[in-house]
């Protein structure tokens, strides 16, 4: 360190970074301007994405080699674009193509570099340029950039000499791909026009290399910061499966790839090499775990099976015991719909077939060449999902074991297998905000009149008083008999009076209502009426009269509902019957017993959050399917419409923000059998828990016996 720094003073070129408080001051003479925050925190903090990949293609190879690149490595890169000189090129499915309109190599490179700088220069740290006749190991390239410092101007690739040029100058060969840092791209951009006009070259990679050398003084290197850019040049008629050279196995990029089949064969071979490396790493780690575990207090008994996988979950009570599901090769004896036996099909059948095949393969790997096993029959199968480690299997297999001398014997053997949980992946979701207006829709029948006052009070307290961005529309469902007498006696007159009082209390609030006459209040038919009276971008919350609206839930409704992507069906918390739970004792209400004396009602689909545009799209598909058979709508709910007639995600989750007091619901027998049965089950399961019901029966028997 310089002498000044040694004495405690900052040396030349160094600042004394001492924290200080900057007082806030606002000029009273200037109007107040609201500070606009960025949409994402990474934008405000100046974070960049790691890697952008550009693939140069042409008219001759767009539908062949470019497609092969897209199918093999494109999904491993965070962002990949294809660049071509074609005009109005037809884009193959699943590819993002940028057409510059000029196929001259130098012009294509110039336009590509300008486009990358303009659209992605401020978003990414590294830019990888490759051709479509290059096979790149995506995972190796991503690992390479994680080990390089972004503070340097990097021009990394396979260094080649210029023909007849300076012996010290090198350019990066385009066929093997090359890596540019963001800082180099920003410095290069002002000189691109000069390079286009002053530098003559036949090859685009030579032109770019000459441009970087002449204006920035940076030459291509194959090694930087201890990292090597390994490449491999393919000879004609190469057999990738037979390549065993260390240079080939270590290559980040392989060139030239002459056709699609060779690209797929290379991908298969490198995937096999990568898998072998991973399996070897797993074996080495397992050996280290065994060696280290022997030195722990538990000794060798502390080694879990499989080695390196979390130990099985240990339940603390009988309520936490994870049950096993029994299955055979044809049937499953724990069905999603609750039936005792169902046919094994779909993903479950594929899962069982794969696990049996894996079990036999592992047995053969362990006992060959002395014994050779083949499966005769699956006698018994058990599986369970352990959230701490994955899916566990126990199989009783009837096997035929053959010796080297040709003797065979049939035996039964029990094996245990684990399909461990793999790396957790965060699924990208579209951006949503809590500022969206929510349109509440409340259907009301005559049976609901006793609960309307409480609903309106909670709505006023939690939304109108807090100025939440939420509106309310009431849907009055008249029975035909009541509709004929509405001129003399309006059954909803009391509700309309309460709405009038709310509108007087909150002058800026209007609560419209819609009157409907029907004997069967189908949820879909009611939503058809409401949907036509609102804009397509409306966010609906379909509520029930027992719902207690609060800001916490409305925000989750906004965040969990994404236009053209996802709809939200919350599972509300239903309180039990206090007469059975407390049996005459005083009800205790505190934060400690919140969500205790009740259950989440999974049979109810009355509440839903969705956008009007998504509902209209799904409803159009439904109308085309049922034609004019409107009676089908009586057996459907909005949930069924989205489930069967939309490609959206249906998010169904428990919602602690929706708490409903106990009440015995009236189930309309005019609805479909399934909806009526679901309503009855909701009432029965909402009475009390098993322990409460058992106590009630016990007390009743005690009273009868005395």
In whole angstroms, how far apart are the ends? 96 Å
- Number of structural domains: 3
Separate helix tally: 21
Q: Examine the coordinates and then state which fold CATH places here, giving the name of the CATH topology of the largest domain.
A: Spore Coat Polysaccharide Biosynthesis Protein SpsA, Chain A
* Major sheet size, sense and barrel closure: 6 strands, mixed
What is the global morphology?
globular
Portion in strands: 15-25%
List how many beta strands DSSP finds: 27
pLDDT averaged over residues: 87
Outline the low-pLDDT stretches. Answer: 1-8, 589-593
| Helix proportion | 25-40%
Describe the structure in your own words.
- The chain is α/β, with parallel strands linked by helices and 706 residues long.
- It folds into 3 domains: 43-228, Spore Coat Polysaccharide Biosynthesis Protein SpsA, Chain A; 325-420, Nuclear Transport Factor 2, Chain: A (Roll); 438-582 and 595-693, Spore Coat Polysaccharide Biosynthesis Protein SpsA, Chain A (Alpha-Beta Complex).
- The chain is built from 21 helices and 27 strands.
- A hairpin with a 4-residue loop joins β18 and β19 (408-420).
- α12 (449-464) packs parallel to α14 (493-505).
- The termini are far apart.
- This is Hexosyltransferase.
- One of its GO terms (molecular function) is N-acetylgalactosaminyl-proteoglycan 3-beta-glucuronosyltransferase activity.
Summarize the structure.
This protein has 706 residues and is α/β, with parallel strands linked by helices. The protein contains 21 helices and 27 strands. Helix 4 crosses helix 8.
């Amino acid at each position: 360190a310089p002498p000044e720094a040694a004495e405690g003073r900052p040396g030349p070129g160094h600042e004394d970074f001492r924290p200080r408080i900057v007082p806030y001051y606002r000029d009273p003479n200037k109007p107040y301007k609201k500070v606009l925050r960025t949409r994402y925190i990474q934008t405000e903090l100046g974070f960049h994405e790691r890697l952008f990949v550009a693939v140069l293609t042409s008219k001759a190879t767009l539908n062949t080699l470019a497609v092969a690149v897209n199918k093999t490595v494109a999904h491993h890169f965070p962002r990949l674009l294809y660049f071509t000189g074609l005009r109005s090129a037809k884009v193959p499915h699943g590819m993002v193509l940028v057409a510059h309109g000029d196929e001259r190599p130098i012009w294509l490179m110039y336009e590509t570099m300008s486009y990358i700088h303009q659209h992605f220069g401020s978003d990414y740290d590294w830019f990888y340029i490759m051709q479509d006749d290059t096979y790149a190991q995506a995972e190796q390239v991503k690992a390479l950039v994680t080990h390089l410092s972004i503070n340097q101007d990097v021009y990394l690739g396979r260094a080649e000499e210029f023909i007849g040029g300076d012996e010290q100058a090198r350019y990066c060969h385009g066929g093997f791909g090359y890596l540019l840092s963001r800082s180099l791209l920003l410095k290069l951009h002002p000189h691109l026009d000069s390079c286009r006009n002053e530098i003559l070259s036949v090859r685009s990679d030579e032109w770019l290399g000459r441009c970087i050398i002449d204006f920035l003084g940076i030459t291509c290197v194959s090694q930087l910061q201890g990292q090597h850019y390994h490449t491999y040049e393919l000879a004609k008629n190469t057999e990738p499966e037979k390549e065993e050279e260390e240079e080939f196995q270590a290559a980040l990029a392989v060139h030239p790839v002459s056709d699609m089949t060779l690209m797929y064969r290379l991908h298969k071979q490198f995937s096999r090499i990568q898998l072998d490396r991973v399996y070897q790493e797993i074996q080495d780690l397992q050996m280290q775990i065994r060696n280290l575990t022997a030195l722990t207090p538990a000794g060798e008994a502390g080694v879990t099976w499989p080695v390196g996988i979390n130990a099985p979950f240990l339940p603390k009570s009988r309520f936490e015991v994870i049950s096993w599901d029994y299955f055979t090769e044809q049937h499953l004896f724990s069905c999603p719909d609750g039936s005792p036996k169902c046919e094994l099909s779909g993903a479950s059948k594929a899962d069982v077939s794969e696990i049996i095949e894996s079990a036999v393969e592992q047995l053969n790997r362990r006992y060959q060449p002395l014994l050779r096993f083949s499966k005769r029959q699956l006698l018994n199968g058990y599986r369970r999902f352990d959230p701490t480690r994955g899916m566990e299997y126990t199989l009783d297999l009837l096997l035929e074991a053959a010796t080297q001398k040709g003797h065979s014997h049939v035996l039964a053997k029990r094996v245990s297998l684990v399909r461990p949980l793999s790396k957790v992946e965060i699924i990208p979701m579209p951006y949503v905000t809590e500022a969206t207006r929510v349109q509440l829709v409340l259907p009301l029948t005559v049976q609901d009149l006793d609960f309307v006052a409480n609903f309106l009070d909670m709505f006023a307290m939690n939304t109108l008083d807090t100025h939440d961005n939420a509106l309310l529309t009431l849907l009055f469902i008249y029975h035909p008999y009541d509709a004929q007498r509405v001129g003399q006696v309006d059954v909803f007159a009391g509700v309309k009076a309460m709405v009038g009082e709310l509108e007087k209390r909150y002058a800026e609030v209007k609560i419209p209502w819609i009157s409907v006459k029907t004997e069967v209040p189908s949820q879909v038919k009611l939503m058809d009426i409401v949907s036509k009276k609102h804009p397509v971008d409306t966010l609906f919350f379909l509520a029930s009269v027992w719902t207690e609206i609060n800001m916490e839930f409305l925000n989750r409704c906004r965040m969990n509902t994404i236009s053209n992507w996802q709809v939200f069906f919350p599972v509300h918390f239903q309180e039990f019957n206090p007469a059975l739970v407390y049996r005459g004792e005083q009800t205790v209400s505190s934060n400690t017993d919140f969500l205790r004396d009740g259950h989440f009602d999974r049979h109810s689909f009355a509440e839903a959050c969705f956008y009007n545009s998504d509902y209209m799209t799904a409803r159009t598909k439904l109308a085309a399917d049922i034609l004019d058979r409107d009676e089908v709508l009586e057996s459907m709910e909005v949930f069924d419409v989205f489930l069967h007639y939309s490609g959206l995600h249906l998010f169904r989750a428990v919602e602690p923000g929706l708490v409903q007091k106990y009440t015995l619901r009236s189930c309309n027998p005019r609805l479909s059998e399934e909806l009526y049965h679901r309503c009855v089950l909701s009432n029965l399961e909402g009475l009390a828990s098993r322990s409460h019901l058992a106590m009630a029966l016990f007390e009743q028997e005690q009273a009868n016996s005395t």
